[in-house]
């Protein structure tokens, strides 16, 4: 009998975006596979695609495709296996993904022996890999800070024969089924559309907006960001993107947003690639004394959520299905140790979260109610 990690007891908790279902974190350069064809001047934008692909052209499937038979489950549970996490950064989203993975690892009888994060620093991540591999884990769940340098720094994982599972971004040159088991992520095209609809609806379908994206060749956020701009142009033709900026460090977003606001006094909205980067944008808006600029971003974050509840500057956030991504990562790790072929790429459905459905959205993504620091309760 087949057994899925996303059974009714851990069902995908999602909401629909428009006619189709509606994440560590990142964006900026040209996207792969999601951009709509540019419209002629004065012509309406072409309808964007809801298709996306992985960094090597992997085609996404649903998380529910990851399943084990009872015999396979028993084999994993009896294997005395261990696992470790090598994250790119910390934050509410990463914590929720790890929580989902830890819960699934526990059900699989796999012990978690280490968890590290690199503050988006490739050198720190390389050192973290060495530290983690000294514990000889059987499974490593990771996301490359810098795909190019990670091709070398992740080599100790391969040399040790550990099974590598990727959340969103693998090292350059690594392929599913060879160097790593599978990529587990969110549906990027749907996430971009969800962001566009949250901001477009908040602005009443018109006004000037700015876009702040991560200035790196990072396939995950590149496609998500491109989907946002494509769907905004298509569904809200009276909204104009007046400025786009890239940022190399999420701590630089306050200065970037401040300059954008000063240059564009009629600005009414700002899209930011992910939530911790959005914190600086909110600080810049407050410093400018603007109560009329709406922000939309990805990931559910306590700071941004609190600002949404108490203020006027956050239109909403897009949740990634974090717990389910974590469960999928753990289950893909089990595929690896069993030598079972896994889908190259699987994706969760994102959730639109606004002030009106904050509690439900938080529970769907993180499995708990938002903390009192968010709700004021």
Automatic annotation (TrEMBL):
* Ranges of Low complexity composition bias in the record: 35-48
Q: Does the keyword Signal apply?
A: yes
GO-annotated molecular function = carbohydrate binding
Top-rank taxon of the source lineage equals Bacteria
Q: Which InterPro entries match?
A: Peripla_BP_I (IPR028082), SBP_2_dom (IPR025997)
| Subcellular compartments | Cell envelope
- Keyword set for this entry? Signal
Show the PROSITE patterns listed in the entry.
PROKAR_LIPOPROTEIN
Q: Where is this region: Disordered?
A: 35-60
Q: Where is the signal peptide?
A: 1-30
| CDD domains, alphabetized | PBP1_ABC_sugar_binding-like
Instruction: Indicate where this protein is primarily found.
Output: other
What Gene Ontology terms describe where this protein resides (cellular component)? cell envelope
Q: Where is the Periplasmic binding protein domain?
A: 84-332
Question: Which family would the database say this protein is a member of?
Answer: Belongs to the bacterial solute-binding protein 2 family.
- Name the record gives this protein: LacI family transcriptional regulator
Q: Which organism is it from?
A: Agromyces binzhouensis
């Amino acid at each position: 009998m087949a057994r899925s990690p996303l059974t009714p007891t851990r069902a995908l908790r999602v909401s629909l975006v428009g006619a189709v279902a509606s994440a560590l974190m990142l964006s900026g350069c040209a996207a792969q596979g999601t951009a709509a064809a540019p419209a002629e001047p004065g012509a309406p934008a072409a309808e964007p695609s809801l298709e996306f692909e992985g960094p090597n052209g992997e085609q996404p499937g649903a998380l529910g495709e990851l399943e084990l038979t009872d015999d396979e489950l028993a084999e994993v549970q009896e294997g005395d296996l261990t696992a470790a996490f090598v994250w790119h950064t910390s934050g509410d989203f990463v914590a929720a993904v790890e929580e989902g993975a830890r819960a699934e690892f526990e059900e699989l009888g796999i012990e978690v022996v280490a968890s590290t994060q690199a503050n988006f620093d490739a050198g720190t991540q390389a050192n973290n890999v060495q530290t983690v591999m000294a514990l000889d884990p059987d499974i490593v769940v990771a996301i490359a800070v810098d795909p190019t340098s990670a091709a070398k720094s992740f080599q100790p994982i391969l040399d040790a024969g550990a099974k590598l599972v990727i959340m969103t971004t693998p090292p350059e040159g690594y392929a599913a089924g060879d160097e790593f088991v599978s990529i587990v992520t969110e549906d990027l095209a749907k996430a971009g559309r969800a962001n566009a609809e949250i901001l477009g609806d908040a602005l009443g379908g018109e006004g000037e907006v700015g876009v702040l994206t991560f200035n790196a060749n990072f396939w995950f956020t590149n496609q998500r960001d491109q989907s946002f701009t494509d769907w905004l142009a298509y569904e809200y033709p009276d909204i104009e993107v007046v400025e786009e900026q890239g940022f190399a460090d999420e701590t630089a977003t306050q200065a970037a947003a401040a300059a954008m606001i000063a240059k564009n006094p009629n600005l009414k909205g700002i899209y930011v690639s992910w939530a911790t980067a959005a914190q600086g944008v909110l600080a810049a808006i407050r410093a400018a004394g603007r109560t009329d600029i709406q922000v939309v971003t990805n990931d559910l974050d306590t700071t941004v959520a609190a600002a949404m509840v108490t203020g006027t500057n956050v239109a909403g956030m897009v949740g990634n299905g974090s717990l389910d991504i974590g469960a999928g990562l753990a289950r893909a790790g089990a595929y690896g140790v069993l030598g079972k072929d896994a889908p190259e790429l699987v994706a969760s459905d994102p959730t639109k979260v606004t002030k009106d459905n904050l509690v439900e959205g938080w529970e769907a993504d993180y499995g708990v109610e938002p903390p009192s620091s968010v709700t004021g309760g």
